[in-house]
From TrEMBL:
The chain crosses the membrane at residues 6-37, 49-73, 79-102, 109-127, 147-171, 183-205, 211-234. It holds the Pfam family TauE. It is a multi-pass membrane protein. The keyword Cell wall biogenesis/degradation does not apply. Its main location: membrane. It is found in: Cell membrane; Membrane. One of its GO terms (cellular component) is plasma membrane. The keyword S-adenosyl-L-methionine does not apply. This is Probable membrane transporter protein. Keywords: Cell membrane, Membrane, Transmembrane, Transmembrane helix. It comes from the Bacteria. Belongs to the 4-toluene sulfonate uptake permease (TSUP) (TC 2.A.102) family.
Amino acid sequence: MPDIEWIVLYMALGAIAGFMAGLLGLGGGGILVPLLASIFTMQGMSADNVVHLALGTSLACMIISSTASIRAHAFRGAIMWRVASGMAPGIVIGAFLAAHAATNLNSTFIAVFFTLFMALITLQMLVDWQPKPSKQPVTLRRLLAAGVGIGSVSALTAVGGGFLAIAYLSYKNSDIKTAIGTSAAIGFPIAIAGTAGYMISGWSITLSNPYTLGFIYMPAFLVISIASAIAAHYGARCSHRLPEVFLKKTLAVISLLLSIKMLASFV
């Protein structure tokens, strides 16, 4: 097992990501990926694999967080199950193929893509941009195509599933609470398919590395998942005390700065 100082770092990281997820209803990939990449580098893992390991491990952690989120939103009847089930096949295909293809992409390319995507999210939150509603009906074919796009991007960033899904559903005239709840349901197949893709694609590459299942580093996954599940409860309790818009913008800027730091390590 890793030394105790790494376990403590994973615990702190999980607590931060979980608290912010509970506070804002956002996934923790924007925080997890760059910080995990830095921690894995400090642990002496290969620079060629640290970003892939950070993405795969973050997606694995999303399985736990999205399950809790689905339960909360389903209890309030805020999930459009027809839309979620219509997008799910495309999401699974897009996330699995993108995660598998990531094996052939070097860490620098993925770091650049991640940073640019975080810049887009930050800009959207700072200007509070919302897409103009569409008058076109929601069809199964459009849901499938949207699912492929959302799943693919999410597998390459471990973030953005909620951002893209909410933007798409708002574009399709869904109210914001229902869009958020449905995006939570969409996050589960993204996490499952992305985790499977990174696990399978990295199996032979990390076979000699201890405690890894493909590009999933199990000690980090277990500790972060437990810590985030506990901290999310307290984040949710604090969610009404501070302005949500201010918190989201702060988180977006912090995530962008962390992404730039990660990019600087590989360029």
